[in-house]
Amino acid sequence: MSVDQLLLCIALVGEIVVCGLVWKRRLWRILPFFATYTAWCFLSDGAGALLLQKYTNASTIYQKYYYTQLIVDAVLQFAVLGELAWSVLRPVRASLPRGARFALYGLIAMAGAAIWPLAAITVPSSITGVDATLFHVGETFAILRIVCFLVMASFSQLLSIGWRDRELQVATGLGLYSIVSLLVTVLHSHMAAGPDYDRLNQLLSASYAATVLYWLVSFATKEQERKEFSPQMQQLLVLMNVGARSTRIALSDLPPEPSSKRTK
Question: Which residue, 94, 229, 89, 90, is CA-closest to 158?
C-alpha cells in the first residue's frame, strides 16, 4: 500500500467515525450543515477513490465528477461558516432582530468578495478556463475558513467559547487544514512537477487526515455547558439592538411623501 492510499484509508475511516460521533452527540441538532458536510466528505472521497480505480483523473467522467464535487463542496462550506457564526450567538439569538441570520450570511459573502482578488494571486498561470475559476473559488474559501477560525479564536473570551465548545472545535479543524492547504498551494506555484511536488500533496493529505482525527478526539469528549456572553459582549449587542430599533422607529415616523399626479 502506497503512502497516498494509506492516508486515504485513514481519512475515510476517520470520516465515518466522525459521522457516527456527530449523530451520537446530537451535533446535527445545532450544526445540521456541518453534519451534512461530514457525510458529504465521506461519500465524495469514497466515490472519487472508486472512480480513480476505473478511470484516470484526466478522463471526462472523472472531470465531470470533480467539477460537481467542487461546486457542492463550496456551497456546503459557505453554509457551514454561516452556521458556525449563528451558533456562536446562541445565548442571545432570541434578543437579536429578525433577519440577523441572513445578515450574517451576507457579511460572510461580503468577506468572500473582499478576499476574491487576494485569492487570485494563488492561481497558477498554467491553469486556465473553468479549472482556474474553480481553483480560485477553492482558494477563496480556504482563506475565508482561516479568517473564520482566527476571528473565533481571537474573540473566544469575548464570545465565551473555549476549546471544548463544538463551534470552536469545528472552526479549528477547518482553519488549520486551510492554512496547510494555502501554504501548499503557494509552494506548488513555484515548483515544477517532481518528488518534492508529490511530497507536498502527501503533506496536504496528511493534514486533512489529522483534521479528521482531531474532530474524532474532540467529538468523543462531552461538550461543556455553553456559558453566557461576557458583560462587554452583552453590552455591545444591546447597543446594536437599540440602534437598529431606533432606526426602524425613525423611519416609521417619517411623513408620507405627497402623491404626484401626471398631467397630460
Answer: 229
CATH architecture of 3-222: Up-down Bundle (1.20)
The beta-carbon contacts of 5-11 under 8 Å, at least 24 apart in sequence, are 7/202, 7/205, 7/206, 7/209, 8/45, 8/49, 8/205, 10/209, 10/212, 10/213, 11/45, 11/205, 11/208, 11/209, 11/212
Would you list the domain boundaries of the chain?
Answer: 3-222
Establish how many alpha carbons lie within 13 A of residue 238's alpha carbon, considering only the half-sphere containing its beta carbon.
7
pTM of the predicted model over 0.85: no
User: Residue 157: which residues within 8 A CB-CB, separation 6 or more?
Assistant: 230
177, with CB counted inside 10 A (0-12, 13-18, 19+), is: buried
38 near 17, Cβ under 8 Å?
A: no
Residue 259 pLDDT = 46
Q: Could you read off the pLDDT of 203-249 as tens digits, one per residue?
A: 999 999 999 999 999 999 887 676 665 565 556 555 555 444 544 44
Within 10 Å of residue 168's Cβ, how many Cβ atoms? 21
The pLDDT value recorded for residue 236 is: 57
In the chain the first and final C-alpha atoms are separated, in Å, by 85
Give the largest Cα separation in the chain, rounded.
Answer: 85
